[in-house]
Amino acid sequence: MLDQITNSLVSFNKEAAVIALGALPVSELRGAIPLAMAMGFSPLKAYILAFTGNILPVIPLLFLLQPVASRFRHIKWVGKFFDWLYERTRKKASLVEKFEVVGLILFVAIPLPITGAWTGCVAATLFKIRFRYAFPAILAGIVIAGLIVLGLSIAGKGMLSGNY
Description:
By secondary structure, the protein is mainly alpha-helical. 82% of the residues lie in helices and 0% in strands. The longest helix has 31 residues, at 131-161. It is globular and about 55 Å long.
């Protein structure tokens, strides 16, 4: 399904495809930067587009996640979803629980599956980290993760082209 969305967006507008992929919870900028570079964008443009997409859902998630969860939790499948989401996040986000804001930065910055801005927003909500601390921490984590992914993408592209 992710491939279908990406292919549809790429045929429409390549920049929009990178931003959209960066905004999605599964790929975030970990998928958007390599895609942008594969499409021929410069590393700087790839980073900026992926970063833009990745930061888009953060403010709405930080403000709306808890109220939406509380409002619709009485619906059986919604309650089960939020129970699953919070439990999964609690298991993966011990770093956030232990070190709070610094842990949140590191948690978002690690470019691995089940980390990133989306899960960082869930962790910030779960551990009741206030917006004024959570947003800059998630932003810093995105910057760091983007630089790591960009470096790996540049190195990978160089290896594939025989420049290393």
